[in-house]
Write a structure and sequence with these properties.
The chain has 124 residues and is an all-alpha fold. The radius of gyration is 16 Å and the shape is globular. The longest helix is centred in the last third of the chain and has 30 residues. The protein starts with a helix and ends with a helix. The protein is 85% helix and 0% strand. α4 runs antiparallel to α5. It has one domain.
Length: 124
């Protein structure tokens, strides 16, 4: 059952990632990878909610597999983040590459923290 939940979540997460990435990137006239940044931050927030919800026993394991492993696993993308950062370096836009790394780490951790805080407000 858990494997099925992961597959179902990924079946939603992967196309959502692609569609959000393309929609966000199309709105920005910049070499900065705004689309990937957006999906990674959104996924970090969702995972923060799920982590705290699971710790409070408010989210069952099957839902965690569906949303955490399946949906967020397919929604977020470390490999594309890495590729786009290297591409920025190769294109000699080092400031954007450094910004991508720093902003992704800070915003990702911040989004996770906010997700945990939201879940605490809901379930405590």
């Amino acid at each position: 059952m858990t494997a099925l939940m992961v597959v179902l979540g990924a079946m939603v997460g992967a196309p959502v990632r692609y569609l959000v990435d393309r929609a966000v990137q199309a709105k920005h006239d910049s070499v900065f990878p705004w689309g990937t940044f957006t999906v990674n931050i959104a996924g970090s927030f969702i995972l923060g909610v799920l982590i705290r919800g699971s710790a409070a026993h408010a989210i069952p394991g099957t839902l965690n597999a569906l949303l955490g492993t399946g949906l967020c696993g397919a929604l977020t993308t470390y490999s594309t983040f890495g590729y786009e950062t290297v591409r920025l370096l190769e294109d000699r836009v080092r400031a954007y590459a450094v910004l991508n790394v720093a902003a992704s780490i800070v915003a990702g951790l911040g989004a996770t923290y906010c997700g945990v805080a939201v879940a605490e407000a809901i379930w405590t």
